[in-house]
Amino acid sequence: MKNLLIPLLFLAALGGPGLGQGSDFPLPLPGNDAVGEVTTTTSRYEDTLSDIARRHGLGYLELSEANPGVDPWLPGEGLEIIIPTRFLLPPGPRKGIVINLAELRLYYYPKGENRVVTYALGIGREGWSTPVGVTRVTGKRPNPSWTPPESIRREHAEQGDALPAVVPPGPENPLGEYAIYLGMPGYLIHGTNKPYGVGMRVSHGCIRLYPEDISRLFPRVPEGTPVRIINEPYKLGWIDGRLYIEAHKPLSEERPDQGIDLSQLNTAIESLPGTEQATIDNDVLMDAVLTHAGYPILIGKRTVR
After folding, report:
1. Does 225 lie in the same domain as 190?
2. DSSP 3-state of 106
3. Cβ–Cβ contacts within 10 Å for residue 301, how many?
4. What is the rounded average pLDDT of the residues 35-63?
5. Could you give the CA distance from residue 151 to residue 157 in angstroms, rounded to a whole number?
6. Residue 21 or 204, more confident
7. 51: buried, middle or exposed (CB in 10 Å: 19+, 13-18, 0-12)?
8. How distant, in Å, are the alpha carbons of 20, 72, 289, 300, 301 from that of 278?
9. Catalytic residue selected from 56, 156, 204, 206
10. Do 84 and 103 fall into the same domain?
């Protein structure tokens, strides 16, 4: 039985400040799991979706999924674009750095500050997948050099693009201006000399941030910071007693040939405290899963007992 009306999301006024100036949020009050707001902006004639995404601290796929049917190369002048800058916090402890691969987004909880900072990121493409797991920050380096592994040098050589044994700092260095080293050998959080790859799966497994974002994150993260890398396409959370889902498309290698795999969805629902006392509109839930808009959608509420 359905006893829930699904309201439209609140959209802020056109031309809001965007995530580029608002990626740092106070943690929500107890019992709430969301930060930020969904806004809209108006496209300019010269805009691409990648341009708009970067201005608002989003990745390309985040913006594209929130605006299905919009031409990514030429949205056109005067088009209203949804800016999906309301986020359900990832499941698990709100501590250190949490990277959600399916979401293509990083969350950082500075110790003792009761805040969260979030940035779009790029991850490893299929065949060079970024691993899930728990690790920590083992070092930091400005203006890093890059020592490409033999597998990457061989791949480049096969494409007629020979790499040196060591790539020095500078505009040709794919690590950008800052690198944060992890306890997982060979994996880093770093900047990039190709910022339009942020928000997509284009790397050899490392985690890329926009140059402006890594420059903000780098000085705030001390060595020893815990890092948890997860892969959760479906995040659920509470906002003022109402249940929301934020659905993202699963990574390509995890999509079944037909239909959808509901195991991760069921786990997400069962893992969130309080869902056993919720009334959920299953039609709206499945629509959110199938459309994967990437921002919180209301699917239920707590049942008063």
Report:
1. yes
2. strand
3. 18
4. 94
5. 10
6. 204
7. middle
8. 35, 38, 18, 6, 5
9. 206
10. no
pLDDT in tens, 81-111: 999 999 999 999 999 999 999 999 999 999 9
Instruction: Identify the domain boundary among 230, 249, 264.
Output: 230
Strand partners, 279: 301
Q: What pLDDT is stored for residue 129 in this prediction? A: 72
Q: 300 and 174, same structural domain?
A: no
Here the CATH number for the domain that contains residue 191 is 2.40.440.10
Q: Which domain holds residue 42?
A: 1-89+235-305
**Percent residues over pLDDT 90 in the chain:** 65
Q: How many residues does the chain have?
A: 305
206 has catalytic annotation: yes
Q: How many domains does the chain have?
A: 2
pLDDT at 76 over 80: yes
d(CA 79, CA 77): 6
One-letter identity of residue 119:
Y
pLDDT average, residue stretch 27-42: 95
303 & 197 share domain:
no
Tokens of 175: 């690590």
Please choose, from the candidates 217, 198, 225, the residue with its C-alpha nearest in 3D space to the C-alpha of residue 209: 198
Domain boundary, last residue among 230, 261, 287: 230
pLDDT of residue 18: 39
Residues 106 and 199 in one domain: yes
Task: Report in angstroms the alpha-carbon separations of 16 from 12, 57, 60, 77, 212.
Answer: 7, 13, 19, 17, 19
Instruction: State how far the Cα of 29 lies from the Cα of 51, in Å rounded to an integer.
Output: 33
Task: Name the amino acid, one letter, at 6.
Answer: I
Q: Name the nearest CA neighbour of 219 among 146, 142, 145.
A: 142
Query: Same structural domain for residues 132 and 250?
Result: no
Residues 114 and 158 in one domain: yes
Tell me, rounded to whole angstroms, the distance of Cα 7 from its chain centroid: 25
Q: Does residue 245 share a domain with residue 138? A: no
Res 131: pLDDT: 87
Residue whose pair of structure tokens reads 């709206």 in the numeric block: 284
Residue 10 predicted with pLDDT over 50: no
Mean pLDDT lowest among 9-23, 67-81, 265-279:
9-23
The pTM score is 0.88
